[in-house]
Design a protein that fits this description.
The longest helix has 23 residues. 32% of the residues lie in helices and 13% in strands. By secondary structure, it is α/β, with parallel strands linked by helices. The two termini are 23 Å apart. The strands form 2 sheets. Strands 2-1-3-6-5-7 form a 6-stranded mixed β-sheet, sandwiched between helices. A two-stranded antiparallel sheet has the order 4-8. The chain has a single domain, classed as Spore Coat Polysaccharide Biosynthesis Protein SpsA, Chain A (Alpha-Beta Complex).
Length: 294
């Protein structure tokens, strides 16, 4: 370990905001969606608090809108952009690196994620996420219509479409898009982004001058394409790290094997069904981090 790493001051940030509209989206497994989300977030929070103690860094959790408060009112997608708080909130300026992590993730490692890369920003590319099925989450590489929608969206906001050649680890994708559920930012990158990033609001909720004009899917209007587009537009030094840092065990034929062997370092249970699975596994004591011998 270098002297620089010993002296660094890092922090992990997570948030989960439950508003009145959450339950309108329907129950999950017979339970109110808000109840499931709260329990899921508490499990994730506990694991990251333990992880923070293990790797000797700070931890911060928020249950309220701060960065996105009173912005894009009425558009639930705007809440996903709360992750940009690590860039614009001066509180984080005291830290060298910041890890943002979604609250549907359970830690499954003692390895320090802050020490695995020297890039300005690093995480796992959507296209680098392989499964026992047909590859990753990069629908734009397999569906022409989806690809054209991304091209149209990027062009609308004057953002270049940069393939992942030279960035991706396991797949050369037509578009470089990170899964922003796990993303590490250096201080230099955050200050640079604060200065250079475009305003996120037009990306999330663009003004429609014609009610008949096309509305892009939420997956294109959310934080992942926006952040990735900005990183490429402003030539940030980025790295796609190993999939194990943002892995979904349920996508493998033998999910528990990937947990017990430690092949998956951060266990990401995406989607409503994923959150229910994560809670069930917690109560069945399937996560090593919550065992006394961890």
């Amino acid at each position: 370990m270098t002297k620089e790493h010993i002296m660094s001051k890092n922090i992990i940030f997570q948030y989960m905001v439950i508003d009145d509209t959450v339950d309108e989206r329907g129950d999950i497994g017979g339970r109110k969606r808000s109840e499931v989300y709260k329990e899921m977030a508490n499990i994730s929070r506990e694991s990251f608090e333990m992880y923070a103690d293990e790797i000797d860094c700070e931890y911060m959790y928020s249950d309220e809108k701060v960065f996105t408060k009173d912005k894009c009112v009425g558009d639930s997608t705007s809440l996903l952009f709360e992750c940009l708080r690590v860039i614009y909130d001066p509180y984080f300026d005291q830290f060298d690196k910041v890890l943002y992590a979604d609250t549907d993730i359970v830690v499954n490692t003692k390895e320090n994620i802050f020490e695995i890369s020297d890039a300005e920003v690093y995480g796992v590319l959507e296209s680098d996420i392989r499964t026992d099925g047909k590859g990753g989450y990069n629908a734009w590489d397999y569906n022409k219509d989806v690809y054209n929608d991304y091209i149209e969206k990027f062009n609308m906001h004057d953002c270049p479409v940069i393939p992942s050649f030279g960035i991706g680890r396991s797949f050369n994708s037509k578009i470089t898009i990170f899964n922003t559920g796990v993303l590490v930012w250096t201080k230099e990158a955050r200050l640079k982004a604060r200065k250079l990033f475009d305003n996120w609001e037009p990306w999330c909720c663009p003004i429609r001058f014609d009610v008949n004009s096309k509305t892009h899917h939420t997956s294109i209007c959310n934080d992942q394409p926006f952040i990735s587009a900005q990183l490429m537009k402003h030539n940030f030094d980025v790295e796609s790290i190993e999939q194990r840092w943002n892995d979904t065990p349920t996508h493998w034929n033998d999910p528990q094997h990937w947990i017990d062997t430690g092949k998956s370092s951060f266990l990401h249970y995406t989607g409503g069904g994923g959150s229910q699975t994560m809670i069930e596994l917690f109560h069945e004591d399937k996560f090593p981090i919550f065992r006394k011998d961890w």
